[in-house]
# Entry
Amino acid sequence: MSLFEEVCKGIRPPDYESMEKASKRLDSLIKPIGSLGELEQIAIKLAGITGAIHNEINRKCMIVMSADNGICEEGVSACPQSITALQTVNILKGLAGISALSKHAKSDVKVVDIGINANINYSGLIKRKVRMGTANMSKGPAMSRDEAVKAIETGIEIVKELVKEGYNLLGTGEMGIGNTSTSSAILIAFTGIEADKVIGKGAGMTDEGYEAKKSIIMKALELNKPDKNDAIDVLSKVGGLDIAGMAGCFLSAAYYRTPIVIDGFISAAAALLAYKINPLVKEYMIPSHISAEPGYTYIMEHIGLKPFLDLNMRLGEGTGCPIAFNIIEASTHIINDMATFDELDINNDFLVDIR
Amino acid sequence: MSLFEEVCKGIRPPDYESMEKASKRLDSLIKPIGSLGELEQIAIKLAGITGAIHNEINRKCMIVMSADNGICEEGVSACPQSITALQTVNILKGLAGISALSKHAKSDVKVVDIGINANINYSGLIKRKVRMGTANMSKGPAMSRDEAVKAIETGIEIVKELVKEGYNLLGTGEMGIGNTSTSSAILIAFTGIEADKVIGKGAGMTDEGYEAKKSIIMKALELNKPDKNDAIDVLSKVGGLDIAGMAGCFLSAAYYRTPIVIDGFISAAAALLAYKINPLVKEYMIPSHISAEPGYTYIMEHIGLKPFLDLNMRLGEGTGCPIAFNIIEASTHIINDMATFDELDINNDFLVDIR
# Structure
């Protein structure tokens, strides 16, 4: 059995008994039942993931998958492909959005070259290049099936190592010019949703560029005819290496019972892919923010998850995750630190007079 | 000139020049323009408040105003009035929701007895009781004009002291059984909106209790006829001492150019009141979460603010604020720690080969 098969088949359901116990404790806290809303739901979800009612976040890590997309040569992005490599280095240097937000969240950042179309030597970069960017999916499959599985396994292995190192809250991010196109193609391939509803303008694109982007994505889908019942077929034909790597992270986090956060549209496309491989991963995923990219909301509805941050962000890199980390930590403090009605000291000496 | 008048008249517009400079810096950072959404808007707002482009949050404080409401004797709440006193002590003991969330956010909590209907002796409680709870507004004005102004001035003074102590990010919370009724009455008095649209069920109320709550609130409004063009008239007739105190905090924070966060419905009602006294306060307020209480959204639309957390919370006590504190701090890290395109090292030696 391959690593990929082993992990996919080894994902277990959440621990319903612990979820029930967590829910009971939350209902016994000194507050109206359910009044802490999503904070309570997250605390329950963590109990299901770890099997413990009282959880503590010890080490946090953002995983940023960097890869190039062959579709770029069709002009689907306002940015040149070289930005993938440049911005990957900026993240490593601590200068990018995800660097600043991770530092604030006391989260480490691991940057993985899973398929950048350039050879980069920079301290800290995790070199796991599967290939020098994907092929142009409007002319044929983006990658082979073997490459798609290898990229997923890369994500699986990276999460395995992080869990071994004691990280117990993970986030998923990416850097890859053109990856809103691959994410849109994956979403359309799986759901058949209309292109107009899911394809966004990306960063700084003209109206003409936008129309061209849509027709190129549709061309790639028509040419490759991905089979929506075969997730690896969808991924290899119209996906990307960054998305594959993140999908591997989601599968691995579920396998190792570790909470993992979804960022925006690209990260959500990877979550959708992992969900199509094994729907149980949903129980281990925590969404963060409503991306300004239109396809994002469709994916969340499809998986059945609801983001809790509405920050009008559309940067990518994983930037929604460190903000969500703080809220996930807050949920642990609710269930760990608040008193229950039973625990209250009923000695009311301090009250001289209640009328 | 009274303290109240001095503060109301002394509130200045935000520093538009600094906002413009902050906006320019944000546009020059290594990310697509505007792609960090609300984080950028908050950073710009902070620049307008403090006059500095680079801000740092040094000390954070939650201010919890505790007071009782005479309307409680009409059975508008599922809880007995004594819960106000008990829960105030639980907050001081560190056992309540706001205690756990503030500790997580590294925020202090100051609890003010501004009108609890009981005499409480407990370490840390700030004793500024204006009266032993308000009168029953369904039988007459909740309080006198002088008491309303005194309660506002209490909030003004508390923020003044906190600013002097070096706190530079504040949050507003409350504890007061019956205060969704007073908040609803204030909102209806100012906007004329239909009762059905704004009055919520509160915590654990029956359908019958809900209908009774609505008719009692409408009775109070019909009897007292608050003048919507006179905020102190509205406050004194159908408001509460907790709301008055928080309104004073908002006015004072604007006067001392310090960012202050709105929690849920009650805190928003106080924000609306402050906004009616001087609309400039809006420039110093930062919303946090969309409260599950129906009236909340109407207030935000009226003031023209947009919350960024959607956590389905309805606990009160200020619990949305510490979560927002982290996001506000995140906004400072964006503008302080990210690189601009100009600052980038354009030495690309690390790139062996960009194809």
Remarks:
- Residues 10 and 255 of chain A are 6 Å apart (CA to CA).
